[in-house]
Every structure is written in structure tokens, then in C-alpha cells.
Amino acid sequence: MSDQHPSWLEPPPRPDLPRPDLPPPRPDQISPWGTPRPSGPWTAQVPSPGLAAPPAPAVAAERPKADWSWWLALLVFIGGIFLSGLVGVGLAALAKGGGMYYVVGIIGEFLPMGLLLLWLNTGHAGWQAVIGFPTRFWKEAGVGVIGGLAVYGATAIGIGMALYAIFHLITGRDVSTPEQLPGELSGIRLVLAFVLVVVAAPIAEEFFFRGCLFGAMRSRAPFWLAAVGSSVVFGLAHWDPGSETDPVPVADALLLVTMMFFVGCGLAYVYEKRGNIVACMAAHATFNLLGLGFIVLGVG
């Protein structure tokens, strides 16, 4: 029997030890972490103790999920509307005047929001991260303004014209959205209307419809389902039957509800892409500011 071992019995070379059958590696053949460069024949070297390993690639943080149910948030919101209605009736009985409509409207926006804040703070820790409050406030507000212009162009002009034509074809008459700002807009009424439409409504409505309602749905469903579900509620919230003395035709009320549904979908898209409530509030405020401007100028 031969004294030489067969080659297949030889142990494999250890990559952490020098190989005598190869010349020593040149300095340009060893990377800072002791591994060979592509042109070097050495398979591996022991990492230098004074050098750290390269950092692992960063992983994008997942958006926090809401721990509340959408239907429970809706119940809290409805409770706030009922409470604001009681307050509004009391104020209307105490004071008369053309501007009282807007004062009641402002209270009616912020009172449900206050009840939602109380509910979130008492039982849902970390809700701020779910709804999203950005550190770069003005940047997100600027992006929201651009988003509001896009939503207005797509819904009030593009989709709105198509809806007018469809409703006209179905009803056989010209339809129009109900008048949402009664009375002459001048002086104190114009100031109060601005506060209601451009400040109170965007802040309070976006906090609920996108932050609380869409946020809860999005934590459990894909975007399109959460956008449609929250926008249906957003549209129905704008149902305006009018009054006993001045009723609104059903077709006109349905036209407004349908248009607000598409507006809600557009605002949900802004919220999905930006991940914070400030961009949505700015987009909503821009949308309403354009509408208020056209009303004041008598356009449309």
C-alpha cells in the first residue's frame, strides 16, 4: 500500500489560514474587512479586529396600525354630532343673526373632534403615530396644497362635469348641488364662512374621515377598500335634504353626495402617499378655498 493519501482524503483548505501553495497576498488584494478583492486568488482572510463589519441595509419602517375599530370610531363621531346639535339648538335659541349659522357650524365641526380626542387619549395609546403628525409641517402642508389643486381639478371639474351630464340624462332636467353657504357673504359673515370652510372643516373632517376612519380600515384592508368605505361615509355626511320651507330635490342631494365620494377617494390617496394628516388637511382646505372663492365671485 502506498504511503501517500488519496487526494479525496485531504481535508479542504481553511479559508482563515494562509495557503502555502499560493504566494502571500499583496496589500491591494485584501479589502478593509480582510476579504479578497475580485482580482486576488485568496478566498478569505480573518477580519481585522479594529474594523467593523459593513452596516446592514436599512429596512423601511412599517406604518403603525390602528388598534381601534372603524365602527366604534364612527359611533363616537355620531355621538359628537348629536352633542353639537344640542349645543347648536341652544345657541340658535339664545341668539339670532345671519352669522349664527356659521358659529353653530364651527362648533359642530370641532365638538365631535374633541370627543374623538378624548376617546383616543383614554384608551388608545400611540394614536398620534397612527394618524401621523409630521416633523416637517410646512413641507407637508405645501404638498397638500398641490394635492388639493389636483383633487379639485379631477373631481369638481373633471368627474363633476361627467356627473352633471349623467344626472341630467337620468332626471331629464338640469341638476345642481345644494347651496351650502346661505345668505350674502360679506363682512363678518364672510370671515365666519372662511373660518368654517377653510379652517374648521378641513381640520376636524380630515382628523375623523382620514385619520380615524380610513386609518382603522387601512390597518385591516387594502387601500382601495379602505378608500371606498371611508369615502362612502364622507359622501353621506354631506347629504343635504334642505328644510321644510326650502326642500332640496333628491337628485341634487345625491349629486353632492356622489361628488363628495370622489373627493374623499382623492383625499384618501393623498393620505396614503404622504402618511400624515397635515397633508390631507391642507389639501381639503385648498379644495374648500377654491369653492368658496368661486361662490364669492359668483362663478359656477
Cα distance spanning the termini: 106 Å
> Describe the biggest sheet?
none
| Helix/strand/pairing category | mainly alpha
How many strand segments?
0
Instruction: Look at the structure and give the mean pLDDT.
Output: 86
| Helix and strand element order | HHHHHHHH
- Global geometry: elongated
Low-confidence segments, ≥5 residues, pLDDT <50?
40-45
The total count of helices amounts to: 8
Q: Helicity level, as a percent range?
A: 55-70%
Any idea what the radius of gyration is?
Answer: 31 Å
**Could you tell me the strand content as a percent range?**
under 5%
Structure in words:
The chain has 300 residues and is mainly α. It has a domain at 129-297. Helices cover 60% and strands 0% of the residues. It has helices at residues 70-94, 100-123, 127-131, 137-171, 188-218, 223-236, 250-274, 277-297. Helix 4 (137-171) runs antiparallel to helix 7 and helix 5 packs antiparallel against helix 8. It is elongated and about 105 Å long. The termini are far apart. The model is unreliable at 40-45 (pLDDT under 50).
Layout of SSEs?
Elements: H1 70-94, H2 100-123, H3 127-131, H4 137-171, H5 188-218, H6 223-236, H7 250-274, H8 277-297
Helix pairs in contact: 1-2, 1-5, 2-5, 4-7, 4-8, 5-6, 5-7, 5-8, 6-7, 7-8
Short recap of the structure:
The chain is mostly helical and 300 residues long. The protein has helices spanning 70-94, 100-123, 127-131, 137-171, 188-218, 223-236, 250-274, 277-297. The chain has a domain at 129-297.
